[in-house]
Design brief:
This protein is an alpha+beta fold. The chain has helices spanning about 1-20, 45-55, 65-70, 95-110, and strands at about 70-85, 90, 115-125, 125-135, 145-155, 160-170. A hairpin with a 4-residue loop joins strand 5 and strand 6. Helix 2 packs antiparallel against helix 3. The protein starts with a helix and ends in a 15-residue tail after the last strand.
């Protein structure tokens, strides 16, 4: 009996690292996304451009939420972050569907254009990490942005297309200005 327990413990010891290297199957998405436009998912640059394009529009203009959904991997998350009233850093994780439900009505009501003004990207195999600096206006005719910040965007290529895995962002503040290396070159 003692040998059997030892053998089971030994088997679990060696199975753990192997299991850690095996990706878990993706859960089924809550809402089935429409097929992506091939041009939107053809390259890291294309999918980031599509991401900005699909959330941007004037007041009263509905966004193409099916196109938005089509950019995201079924396990994707969006993570807004900031500082609360007590000065403590906070972040939350939401699904693309949560974003549509919470932000969609505000974007349509008020108008919102988020524009990429600088980009830094690093690639390793099928992964790309993009630091995308943005500014935001309500209308393209606004004389100045009301907000700037940085999106940290993680992309994944599955052999046939690019997917957004996550978007983690922080708006600029007086205490957290955007570093010069993340701004457009002068």
């Amino acid at each position: 009996m003692r040998l059997s327990l030892f053998a089971a413990a030994l088997a679990l010891t060696f199975a753990g690292p192997a299991a850690a290297q095996t990706p878990a199957p993706a859960p089924a998405p809550a809402t089935q996304a429409a097929a992506a436009l091939p041009a939107d998912v053809a390259s890291p640059e294309a999918i980031v451009t599509a991401l900005y394009d699909v959330i941007s529009g004037d007041a009263g203009v509905e966004r193409d939420w099916d196109r938005f959904r089509s950019l995201f991997h079924p396990t994707a998350r969006l993570m807004p972050s900031g500082v609360n009233a007590q000065g403590v850093g906070v972040a939350r994780s939401i699904t693309p569907e949560d974003y549509i439900e919470r932000s969609g009505p505000v974007l349509t009501r008020d108008g919102f254009h988020e524009r990429e003004i600088a980009r830094r990207a690093e690639r390793f195999g099928h992964m790309v990490h993009v630091w995308s600096t943005y500014d935001s206006v309500r209308s393209l005719s606004d004389p100045a942005p009301f907000m700037r910040g940085i999106n940290s965007i993680q992309l994944f290529h599955d052999g046939s297309r690019w997917w957004v895995m996550s978007v983690y962002w922080l708006a600029e503040s007086p205490d957290t200005p955007i570093p010069p290396e993340y701004l457009p070159a002068p």
